[in-house]
Amino acid sequence: MDQLLLLESVERYLRNEMNAEEKKNFEELRKSNPELDQLVVEHHFFLEEMDRYGEIKRFKANLYDTHHTLKEKGDIKDIDPASQGKLVRLWTKYRRVVAVAASIAGITALVISGIVTAVTPKASIQDIEKLRRIVSSLEQKTNHQGKELNDVKKKIEPGTSIKFGGSSFLVDGKGYLITSAHVVQNAAQVFVQNVKGQDFRAEIVYTDALRDLAVLQIKDADFKAVQTLPYGIRKSSTELAEPIFTLGYPKDEIVYGEGYLSAKSGLQGDTMACQISITANPGNSGGPVLNKNGEVIGILNARQTTAEGFVFAIKSQNILRVVDELKKKDTAHHIRLHTSSSIKNLERVQQVKSIENCIYMVKVVENK
């Protein structure tokens, strides 16, 4: 088992996030695998230490804030240098008592450590080294993400009012995306954010109000083109009851949903749309609807939701029509649509991992 997946399973077990069957299977595996059992014990100790460290940091911060507040109110004052002599005398008087207490604390810590070592199965040096490498890798990843977040803040001016409009997805790896037209309506500026939290400047290059579709183009030096998109745009119609799934941003993180095609037409018999059985809200608007083969069969249009359980999607054939119209209007846009999927035979989890890097949150700065 991959070490990161194994560590994730251990954390879920320790945080009691497994269901009854998963927990039972994990505990049986733990009994038969001393290395796994050792990893559970060590990671439990590691998490406790991290929690304890966090508590100490919070306590120090609260202590500092309290001290600063009391000092501003005049309730306390800094120590008078003349009174420091009293502290020295107190230390001289009671330092032997403090030394004895410290010794007892140290001995207690050693005894507890010895007990843990005695009752815990012996781990190989290789296992411990693996754990250290995993922790180091996670720390480096966290630091890298922190740097990326700092870079993002520089792109959007402080105090800018951002509307989190909806979702979008790449139709050409060079930075062309499709979203719903109503998502970017009245936009003065548009930013798109990927699954890693990076923001990119984008422009609206085409809108079709009738189909409620818009084409965006990422125009940002930090954007790196995607060589090949994992999914394709389906040209033909979708069968009734065909399983489908969605990826989008109804909240700050990407969300997966699944359902099926419940009607081949949309609201009031609209032939440009289809009805799907899935949970959605306005934040999903503009996100892709895909079938089991990883083909885009529609663009989720949560604006047309009129009753619980009724969600509609603009059929994927309209993407082809909108892109053709854009090319005719402006020949500078060389958009190449893929109609074949490279993730057809993958399991759903692997399909989602391949697709999620191509799904973007849409952020809009509206005209005043």
Overview of the molecule:
The structure is a single chain. This protein has 368 residues and is α+β, with helices and mostly antiparallel strands. It has two domains: 3-152, no CATH class; 163-366, Thrombin, subunit H. The protein contains seven helices and 13 strands. The protein has helices at 3-14, 20-32, 34-73, 84-119, 125-155, 317-329, 348-355, and strands at residues 163-172, 176-180, 187-193, 199-208, 213-218, 232-233, 243-248, 255-263, 273-277, 288-291, 295-301, 311-315, 359-366. β4 and β5 form a beta hairpin. The longest helix has 40 residues, at 34-73. The radius of gyration is 29 Å and the shape is globular. The two termini are 54 Å apart.
In brief:
The protein has 368 residues and is of the alpha+beta class. The protein contains seven helices and 13 strands. α1 packs across α3 (34-73) and α2 (20-32) crosses α3.
